[in-house]
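Collaborator request, handled under Task 6.
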Amino acid sequence: GSKRAPAPRAWVAPVDADGAKGWSPGDAPAGRVLHPLKSVDVALAAGEQADFVLRPPSTRRYTIGTFGASDTLLVLFEDVDGTPRYLAADDDSGTDRNASIVYRLRRDRTYHARVRLYYPRTSGRTAVMYW
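Structure tokens returned to the collaborator:
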């Protein structure tokens, strides 16, 4: 087969990567489609997750992020011939920032993003978007 150049890596703490690699989009429903610059409201209970599908319109660096006052983990996979391949993860670790991944996504490829809520500081609501 053809070889792909490695994609740039997003910042991931080692403990986050170890836990995130076990998540496989093939083990869950396909999820909602995320469109660039359109946020999606997500209401989750502690420990629940939401699954999203991304099909970027162009090849470039994108930011995928959560918004809101909740402790979240965000994980990104690429669908490679029907098999999910872990790319990156970010855990906001309950700090005053949101989970965010910056990654070069390619047009005509399919990606999966998963958001897991660890702790809802207020309502358990968050939003997810990529741009």
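The cover message to the collaborator said: "Residues 97 and 129 are 15 Å apart (CA to CA). The chain has a mean pLDDT of 80. Please let us know whether this matches your experimental observations."
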